[in-house]
Write a structure and sequence with these properties.
With 154 residues, the chain is α+β, with helices and mostly antiparallel strands. The chain has one domain. Helix content is 25%, strand content 9%. The chain has 8 helices and 3 strands. The chain has a 3-stranded mixed beta sheet with strand order 1-2-3. A hairpin with a 6-residue loop joins strand 1 and strand 2. It is globular. The two termini are 25 Å apart.
Length: 154
């Protein structure tokens, strides 16, 4: 059977399919700065206070938009307007017709593959409550296509 992400558009996916597209990398939960003059995005290594830096999951996903009012809810419609998703993001990859990467849990069958491949933010972030000025934490890696570590031989 052909996987749903190869046969459906993002708009055709049901809620469970849509949610399962998230690879759990946590990159979208990092703060970004936009230059008012150029529109350029500056990625930081500063994580939303709800992001668990070990699991790379939201600590309160059902209530995230109540607790963090500027948390963006990804939808197919919102995705068309968003220019800051990392190139490794499954939503972006599927929208661009690139499919899912080998380390994506839907492909690998393992939620840890995204971490073992070096794609996630695990161990690479600073909590927003301790970071201070975001300008001091600008870094390029979150917005770049990750150089993944190869899967371990089994």
């Amino acid at each position: 059977m052909t996987p749903f992400w190869k046969t459906k558009t993002l708009e055709q996916m049901d809620q469970a399919e849509w949610e399962s597209l998230c690879d759990g990398c946590g990159r979208c939960c990092l703060h970004k700065l936009r230059d008012d003059d150029t529109g350029e995005i500056g990625w930081t290594n500063v994580a939303c206070r709800l992001l668990d830096g070990t699991t790379c999951q939201c600590r309160d996903y059902p209530r995230r938009r109540v607790r963090v009012p500027d948390c963006v809810q990804l939808t197919p419609e919102a995705l068309a307007e968003i220019d800051w998703l990392p190139p490794s993001c499954a939503y972006r990859r599927v929208a661009e017709g690139r499919g899912l990467a080998w380390w994506h849990p839907l492909v690998s069958g393992d939620l840890e593959t995204v971490h073992r491949a070096g794609v996630s933010v695990r161990g690479r972030t600073i909590d927003e409550r301790r970071a201070g000025a975001l300008e001091g934490h600008v870094t390029a890696w979150p917005g770049r296509r990750p150089k993944t570590r190869l899967p371990e031989a089994g």
